Description:
Layout: E1 2-10, E2 15-23, E3 28-32, H1 39-47, E4 54-59, E5 62-63, E6 74-77, H2 89-99, H3 107-124, H4 140-152, E7 158-162, H5 170-187, E8 190-195, H6 198-204, E9 207-212, E10 215-220, H7 222-227, H8 232-237, E11 242-252, E12 255-260, E13 263-268, E14 276-281, E15 287-289, E16 299-311, E17 314-320, E18 326-332, H9 333-339, E19 346-351, E20 357-358
Parallel strand pairs: 3-8, 3-9, 6-7, 7-8
Antiparallel strand pairs: 1-2, 1-4, 4-5, 9-10, 11-12, 11-14, 12-13, 14-20, 15-19, 16-17, 16-19, 17-18
Helix pairs in contact: 2-3, 2-4
Amino acid sequence: MIKINDLHRNWKEFRLTGIDLEIADGEYFVILGPTGAGKTLLLELIAGFHQPDGGKISIGGKNVTGFPPEKRNIGFVYQDYSLFPHMNAEKNIEFGMRMRGLMSRGGSKVKAKSKSKIEEVAGYLNIGHLLHRHSQTLSGGEQQRVALARALVIEPDVLLLDEPLSALDPGTQAMTRKILKGIHNDSKLTVIHVTHDQTEARILADRIAVMMDGRIVQIGTPDEVFDRPIDVRVAHFVGVENVLKGEVTASSNGISMIDIGGKMLEAISECPVGDTVYACLRPENVTLSKTDINSSARNSFEGRLLEMDRMGALVRVKVDLDGGFLLNAFVTKPSAEELGLAFGEPLVVSFKASAVHVV
């Protein structure tokens, strides 16, 4: 559906460089990256709000690089929703149709059909009872759904979402994620969703492009991006809290031995002996116990509890492996209570060789 080739744009103090993307028809594609990575600017180039300095944007097999926004049949939802405060919800939704000229041709029959379409989309998003209300009287979640309705009512080929959940409370975020998932499942609409939120990306994306410093640095499924980051920067960004520098001392049959601070760690890797590498291990893949070392886990080390942070249902535990290195682990609150965790007490940390990603 969307193909982007070698896209460039210079904004003096910032630039997008060499953007290449292919997004399939009906795909839910998430662009994930930290603040200032250029995600919104890329979205605005796709929408036609800016012209690139070089490169090509194609939608549905048509080169739209020089097309204005209204000729691209794209729905766009901004982070702040961009609703008109002097209009009620119905007029805000209708605005998108007016901009496309869908309300001005055909007289009363077209107007009646357009009103029916607005009511249909509003009903689908469960805001039909709010159409008479002005936008400033609506909650954040209700405003979000009005903005979605305005984008959907024009029946776009592509829906662009710019940080659509960032202004919502956690409960409303969860509800809106379900709405977005439902829209995508029901309509098979091509969606490009920009966010820095990893939970959104994991739940919603068919594929993810990680963006940093104006470049796409990795593209893959959620499992590929979160479990097999391409480099150390991406690993840190996607929540791989254990990124351990070491040296490969042995390698055979796809298993490498990595020396990290004098402790030998096993990982599935083809890296040659002598390479300096980083072993990436997500904290949820680390098991804690107070029993003897688990020889079947391949990686099992003794240490002492250094820090403990309670995070609601989860507890983050930092373990000092007797001067070798520090390791973070997540355990559930009941598991932490069952273990009777206390500062300075001995612990055993274990994890599989397959849980370690080497870069």
